[in-house]
Amino acid sequence: MHIKECIVSAPGKAILHGEHAVVHGKMALAVSLNLRTYLQLQATFTGKVSINLPNINAFLSWDVTTLSHLVPESKADLENMDELDAELVRRLRHFVGVPNGTLDTRSMAVLAFLYIYISVFAGSGELPSLTVSVWSELPTGAGLGSSSAYSVCLAAALLSASGTIPSPLSDQENTARWGEVEMELINRYAFQGERIIHGNPSGVDNAVGTWGGILRYHSGKITPLSRVPMLRILLTNTKVPRSTKVLVAGVRDKMNKFPFIINPVLDSVDAISCTCEQTLSEMTSDSPTPEHYDTLEELIDINQHHLNVMGVGHPALDTLCRVTLARGLHSKLTGAGGGGCAITLLRPETEHSVVQNTVQDLRDCGYDCWETRIGAAGVQEHSPLAVKEEVLEVLACY
Ligand SMILES: Nc1ncnc2c1ncn2[C@@H]1O[C@H](COP(=O)(O)OP(=O)(O)O)[C@@H](O)[C@H]1O
Ligand SMILES: C[C@@](O)(CCOP(=O)(O)O)CC(=O)O
Ligand SMILES: [Mg+2]
Questions:
Q1: Which pTM does this prediction carry?
Q2: DSSP secondary structure string for all residues of 30-79
Q3: What is the pLDDT of residues 320-367, one digit of tens each?
Q4: 146 lines ligand 1 (CB under 6 A)
Q5: Using CA positions, which residue lies closest to atom 8 of ligand 1?
Q6: Using an 8 Å Cβ cutoff, are 19 and 198 in contact?
Q7: Which residues form the catalytic set?
Q8: Separation of alpha carbons 260 and 254, rounded Å
Q9: CA distance 118 to 113
Q10: What is d(CA 290, CA 145) in angstroms, rounded to the nearest whole number?
Q11: Is the Cα torsion angle 189, 190, 191, 192 positive or negative in sign?
Q12: By alpha-carbon position, which residue is closest to atom 1 of ligand 2?
């Protein structure tokens, strides 16, 4: 079977507002980041499928013939992309030796890879021999959508390798994006990867990884925001490890236990996201005013309190918010919380020295901190000429 080799990349994301609430049908606003995950797929003649995942120190290889026994007899459940094929998940868990409910980083990454690999190639009657190597600039498990960037890359590369989607590269372009139809398909397969890793994802993360830019996401409906002011954002990683799957399950438990307390909080988060979208749109049609920034800061503060009510805060995040507020800057967690990352809004008039001092204060707490650019491109294919030297070097090691 002919396998098309490729290098693809997808961005991480930051959620401005709506994390957790979006899992329960509320609106979220999310932006892509200038930190990407890169994947190289190589055809081999070894009869083996190998994955090299240096970020999580996982290097595995299987015989294609062994994997072919895992392909479900009926393809109907596999082709129904509205949910995972429970039989394939059961077989994969047994094969990899992962009990249901495990949170092990490597097992989740391996299961997501095998699930997407088998789903893409099951219909072709033959599983191909190939090697996939992944390298990410994103911290894993920190709220910046490393799982979705990984899943989007897997989906794009495997669909491309199988010939299901054509290469967008041309003689003139060393980096190119797929069209809408292909991106829809990539997004659907990536969502299956997110289902394996997150349990019950909303789909916002893989949508941002696929389309990039700044998106409004509501019950599966993706609306790119075309006119958005250039926001300056500081990203801080508390480095407190956490699992999105556990945090999402915790919010669900709280909702079930206290529906009349938690549901209004989720409704309020929805209203925060709507007010933020409205404010951003006013800021682009008129010029941004200090009052607009006051509103954005208040929304950040209210949402951070709501996220604490949902039980996804952490003392390290409380410290972070206090430290930035002492410099007049407002922060909230981003992603699943429980540790991980936070965003801090910088106003246009925020002086360079204030930013520098805040970064230093946060580093003194042991956190990583950097100013970021938002709105990076979604999933892309690259020729080797267009990939940064240091990334190619890492990928070439395997
Ligand atoms: N570069 C990568 N290589 C392999 N697996 C990855 C990579 N990035 C993410 N993952 C998978 O995603 C999981 C982290 O997902 P999650 O808990 O949702 O955190 P987040 O998406 O916020 O980074 C990891 O445990 C791992 O299974
Ligand atoms: C908490 C949630 O809203 C975002 C999770 O993002 P991350 O995996 O922490 O990057 C879950 C989801 O939307 O699927
Ligand atoms: Mg994730």
A1: 0.97
A2: EEEEEEEEEEEEEE-SSSEEEEEEGGGTEEEEEEHHHHHTTS-S--HHHH
A3: 999 999 999 999 999 999 999 999 999 999 999 999 999 999 999 999
A4: yes
A5: 146
A6: no
A7: 147, 205
A8: 10
A9: 9
A10: 31
A11: positive
A12: 336
